[in-house]
Amino acid sequence: MARKGNCKEQRLCFFYGKGKANHQLVIGYFVHHRIVSAVKRVGFVSDRMSYIVLRGCWFISIVMRVHPPSEEKSDDSKDSRYEELEKVFDHFPKYHTKILVGDFNTKVGRKNIF
Q1: How many CB atoms lie within 10 A of CB 31?
Q2: Can you tell me the distance from the alpha carbon of 37 to that of 39, in angstroms, rounded to the nearest whole number?
Q3: Which of 10, 26, 67, 77 sits between 20 and 30 A of 83, alpha carbons compared?
Q4: Which residues partner with 102 through β-bridges?
Q5: In which order are the strands placed within the sheet that holds 28-32?
Q6: 41-71: burial string, b at 16+ Cβ within 10 Å, e else
């Protein structure tokens, strides 16, 4: 369930979901007051994944925010998050513009395999 708050000084509207009990990982979207009417839906899949659906003049855009687990997490945890992402991504029609944003916790460097 999306909640809505106002930042009147900057003329922004803040859509946010419920975070964890310790108030970490609250995902939200700041939307300028001129385009708030374009917001058709805001969805919070989990504490690490959400989306906002924006209707334009000629197309619909879906912005998805994702914070998947880091490389140190178990393979099962990572696989389930990416399966969840794929399920949500495929839920929307193919002809909508989809924008994927997030911190994919990429580690750069060499890994000693042998």
Answers
A1: 19
A2: 5
A3: 26
A4: 66
A5: 3-7, 12-16, 28-32
A6: ebbbbeebbbbbbbeeeeebebbbbbbbeee
Burial of 106 (0-12, 13-18, 19+ CB in 10 A): exposed
Q: Read out DSSP for 10-55?
A: TTEEEEE----TTS-S--EEEEEGGGGGGEEEEEEEETTEEEEEEE
Amino acid 85: pLDDT: 83
| Polymer length of the chain | 114
Mean pLDDT (10-residue bins), the chain, 114 residues:
63 76 68 89 85 91 82 75 85 89 69 65
The letter for the amino acid at 36 is V
pLDDT of residue 113: 66
Closest CA to 66 of 15, 24, 20, 27: 27
Q: Residue 70: CB partners within 8 Å, gap ≥ 6?
A: 105, 107
